[in-house]
Amino acid sequence: MTEEKNPRVLMDTSMGNVTIELFKDKAPISVRNFLSYVKEGFYDGLIFHRVIKEFMIQGGGMDASMQQKKTKFAIKNEAANGLSNKRGTLAMARTAVVDSATSQFFINVVDNEFLDYRGKTPELFGYAVFGQVVEGMETVDAIRQVKTGSCMGHSDVPVEPVVITSVRIIE
Q1: pLDDT digit string (tens) for 41-92?
Q2: Please, which residues bridge with residue 106 across strands?
Q3: Which end of the chain is more exposed for a tag (fewer CB within 10 A), N or C?
Q4: How far apart are CA 151 and CA 79, in angstroms?
């Protein structure tokens, strides 16, 4: 009886590699969704378009010219899965609408418990954690230090694009 291991992905960025373990037992919808984008090569060439040094780095939706890439349908928010937005965790980004996450994700660079599920109302619902950086946190820390500015109406955009070269499933 072998316990099925959590899937892992290798995110290759212009600043180094990050290995992420995905918690498919706790966040099956988010993980399935993320892996479907990975398998299509969706993230290849996209950027970390929002970097806030003492908060998080966000990517998975925009290219280097800040154009939004077309996504699939939004998924159910799994924030109530008991996982916390601690440093090094990966969570689904979304709008103010609870179940609006598609392809964008963020990596918490500090403990952000205030993003955790605290109740059923939209302002308390929180952000679904679905993975964790297991290798390459130094890359994440390098990304969080980049100089940012405003670009096409977005703030906290890296001045020099931080590109996600590829995201691949590793066995």
Answers
A1: 999 999 999 999 999 999 999 999 999 999 999 999 999 999 999 999 999 9
A2: 58, 91
A3: N
A4: 30
Chain-centre distance for alpha carbon 96: 17
**CB contact burial 64-76 (16+ within 10 A = b; e otherwise):** eeeeebeeeebbe
What is the helix (H) or strand (E) element at residue 39, kind and residue range?
A: helix 28-40
**DSSP class of 86:** -
Q: Is 10 helix (H, G, I), strand (E, B) or coil?
A: strand
Q: From CA 80, how far away is CA 29, in angstroms rounded?
A: 13
Beta strands in the chain (DSSP E): 8-13, 16-22, 46-52, 56-63, 89-92, 105-108, 129-135, 148-151, 154-158, 163-170
List the structure tokens of 169: 């499933």
**Stated pTM of the model:** 0.96
Half-sphere exposure of 80 (CA within 13 A, CB side): 11
Per residue in 97-148, pLDDT (tens digit) is: 999 999 999 999 999 999 999 999 999 999 999 999 999 999 999 999 999 9
